[in-house]
Amino acid sequence: MKLSLKKIASLVGGNVIGNDSFIIEGINSLDAATQGEISFFADRKYKESLRKTKASAIIVSEENLLFKGPQVVVSNPVLAYAKVASIFAPPVPRYPGISEQAVLHDSTRIGKDVSIYPLVYVGEEALIGDNVIMFPGVFIGNRVKIGNGTIIYPNVTILHDCQIGKNVIINAGTVIGSDGFGFVRDGPVSVKIPQIGMVQIDDDVEIGANSCIDRAASGKTWIKRGVKTDNFVHVAHNVIIGEDTIVVAQVAISGSVHIGRQVIIGGQVAISDHVEIGDRVMIGSQSGVPKSIPSGEVVSGTPAMPHRLWLKTSGIIRRLPQFNEHLRHLEKRVAELEKNL
């Protein structure tokens, strides 16, 4: 792939300062870029990396015109970098057609231009859309539906009756449709509640590696359009995650939680069952969420509280031993005063 700076600027809605006919052959970080590659600069703490970079051109914003060579000026350099990187990124490798070492049930319906690697298993009455890619070790259960353009990486398991939309990416090792954790006590014995629902994943979702999305006890666990989850995320039964929400690594979402649109959930957050999270909520990393959060709130801590309050609280926590010692001293003085009175 070779593109002129003029072409790159037109693709990202920017303007070129310098030689707009210069040809770019790749993209890289400031530290790793070489001659013929483009990089981006969005944070002044990387000024030293910008000074030393061997990149031929830089994507920058209007207020950061520090590079001496050609520059593509945009309003959001990080977003522009992502768009340019998608152009230069190598395509997903495809197996040519359907491997003879894949096992497909006779009742399976397969779309056009699919790529099915060796050691894939597809069960009864499954429906596989056009241009789907399935890597080795993928298991597709009975009656699963997979939309056009979806990519399923190695060792992914999608169990029976689950539905996957179009242009979904499911990264390696993920399990979709495992039983929800549902039990009822009969004295000392835990009796399993049958998990007879399913999982629905809508279009343009990406699921990180080694994640688990449990099927519903009844009805569906629902991951809506545009959701992006990181690695090692657990989504329990009957959870609903709204459009364009971001879930960072090691998050655990308990059963029947409803999460709104455009929510950002930081790493290692734990959310209690039957909680509702409003639209555009931001939850700081390592927070514990025991109750519902209204739309637009920014919270942190355990239990989760308004972020500014958590910053004050966490500062006080470090001083608690000092406060405790001071309190004991005051108690002794008060006791002596009371004795003298």
**Helicity range:** 10-25%
Q: Please state roughly what percent of the residues sit in beta strands, choosing from under 5%, 5-15%, 15-25%, 25-35%, 35-45% or over 45%.
A: 25-35%
Name the structural class.
Answer: alpha/beta
What is the H level of CATH, i.e. the homologous superfamily of the largest domain?
Hexapeptide repeat proteins
Can you give the mean pLDDT?
95
- Give me the CATH architecture of the largest domain, please: 3 Solenoid
Radius of gyration computed on alpha carbons: 26 Å
Total helices: the number is: 5
- Main β-sheet description: 10 strands, parallel
Oligomer: single chain
Shape summary: flat
Uncertain segments are none
Q: What's the quick description here?
A:
The protein is α/β, with parallel strands linked by helices and about 350 residues long. Helix content is about 15%, strand content about 30%. The strands form 7 sheets. The chain has a 10-stranded parallel beta sheet with strand order 8-11-14-17-20-25-28-31-34-37, with no helix packed on it. A 9-stranded parallel beta sheet has the order 9-12-15-18-23-26-29-32-35, with no helix packed on it.
